[in-house]
Design a protein that fits this description.
six-stranded antiparallel barrel; Thrombin, subunit H; 22 strands; alpha+beta; about 35% strand; Pdz3 Domain; about 425 residues
């Protein structure tokens, strides 16, 4: 064997004995498939990188929780709104595609008072006999509609206070509750001077009555709510809101429509809207208490927002008397009167009055068996004082009798008789005249 072949055989022998040596590959030599699989199965993947170490984990987590809580609170405050004035809101969201409808239930002091009070306000329809258009029969027809306030339940009956002019001359009264239930009403009594009346109904469907408040405690600017039926039952339970604009207002009233002032009504003034049909309805405070009976409004073209209500403190004694007796017993003297200022100057000479006497009330007749006759009052006596208070006309005289005196009280009266002052003492009795 030559030297070349011998060297080659020795090299191959060494390669087969050394397991770490790579086999000599000829050109275009391919590794067998079994060897490739073996290497793939025994290949160890590199270890995963170690995560970075966390430092100080508790404090950052606490800080993040605080920040997250503040963000959530601010988001809820912005979406839900503030709860000023004790308002409470809750809502639901309806998804209608591109837009969302949000239904919000809002509760406030005002809505709570109204919800508490509306059941106690009713409609009152004045029915008077007239000829029916369709049947040509003589049946009760609706002449007008007003409002009333349920204030008491007792012995199977419920009692409503309203205005005298709402029930005046009614042959039948129909009471409509807030839920639409209609009931027959019975007039217990009414008083033309204070424009108050009391109506009685069965109490089986009555769920609530209204508490009396204190009208003397009201302040100008205090919020009040008027509830009633303006323009009829089609607007039943209407609510208007305003303030107390003034207290102790005196409004001249012509009761018999003769063009002369018969009475000075003491009323509350409010800018809460009061319209025809609101008469007899409730004026309430923010505690839901009845503090006035809506009565009238000033309707001149140049006037806006002057509504008037009878203060409940003045109405209460009248309501109690009407409920108990059906009428108001007022003290009277037993005379007929005429304002001095309405007597022509030529006829005043008969009275022989001093020149400085410009105002007063003249007695034109003294009735028999009356306090005036017993006290010695004479025809043509001119009354200028009662209990030391000046009497200028019949309005001031009536207010003194009706507001300051009671049946059985004594009264001192100063009159001029034949030009001379005379003092008269009398004990008042009840009656239907002065």
């Amino acid at each position: 064997m030559d030297d070349y072949n011998r060297d080659r055989e020795e090299e191959q022998s060494r390669s087969s004995l050394d397991p770490l040596s790579e086999p000599q590959q000829e050109k275009n030599y391919e590794t067998p498939q079994s060897e490739t699989m073996y290497r793939a199965q025994n290949t160890t993947p590199p270890p995963p990188p170690e995560p970075p170490k966390r430092r100080g984990g508790f404090l950052p987590a606490l800080f993040g929780a605080i920040i997250g809580g503040l963000l959530v609170w601010l988001l809820m405050f912005t979406v839900g709104g503030s709860d000023d004035n004790d308002n409470k809101t809750k809502g639901t969201v309806k998804d209608s595609g591109s837009s969302k409808q949000v239904s919000v239930d809002i509760d406030s002091d005002l809505t709570g008072v109204v919800e508490k009070s509306t059941d106690a306000v009713v409609g009152i329809t004045n029915l008077q006999r007239g000829q029916d258009f369709w049947t040509q029969s003589d049946t009760p027809q609706a002449i007008g509609t007003g409002s009333g306030v349920l204030y008491k339940k007792a012995n199977g009956k419920a009692y409503i206070v309203t205005n005298h002019h709402v029930v005046e001359d009614a042959e039948v009264l129909e009471v409509t509750l807030d839920d639409g239930t209609k009931m027959a009403g019975k007039l217990i009594g009414s008083d033309v001077w204070t424009d108050l009346a009391v109506v009685e109904i069965d109490d089986k469907d009555i769920t609530s009555t209204m508490e009396f408040g204190d009208s003397d405690a009201l302040k100008r600017g205090e919020t009040v709510i008027a509830i009633g039926n303006p323009l009829g039952l089609g607007f039943s339970g209407s609510v208007t809101v305003g303030v107390v604009s003034g207290k102790d207002r005196s409004i001249p009233i012509d009761i018999n429509s003769d063009g002369a002032v018969d009475w000075q009504a003491d009323v509350l003034q409010t800018d809460a809207a009061i319209n025809p049909g609101n008469s007899g309805g409730a004026l309430i405070n923010m505690a839901g208490q009845l503090i006035g009976i809506n009565s009238m409004k000033i309707t001149e073209e140049t006037v806006e927002g002057i509504g008037l209500a009878i203060p409940i403190n003045l109405a209460l004694p009248v309501i109690e008397q009407l409920e108990q007796t059906g009428e108001v017993n007022r003290p009277t003297m037993g005379v007929s009167l005429l304002d001095l200022r309405n007597i022509p100057v030529q006829q005043q000479s008969v009275l022989k009055l001093p020149k400085d006497v410009k105002n007063g009330v003249v007695v034109t007749e003294v009735f028999r068996n009356t306090p005036a006759q017993t006290a010695g009052v004479q025809k043509y006596d001119t009354i200028v004082e009662m209990d030391g208070e000046p009497i200028e006309d019949m309005v001031t005289l009536r207010k003194h009798l009706y507001n300051e005196k009671k049946v059985g009280d004594s009264m001192t009266m100063k009159v001029y008789r034949d030009g001379k002052p005379v003092t008269i003492e009398m004990v008042l009795k009840d009656g239907n005249s002065f």
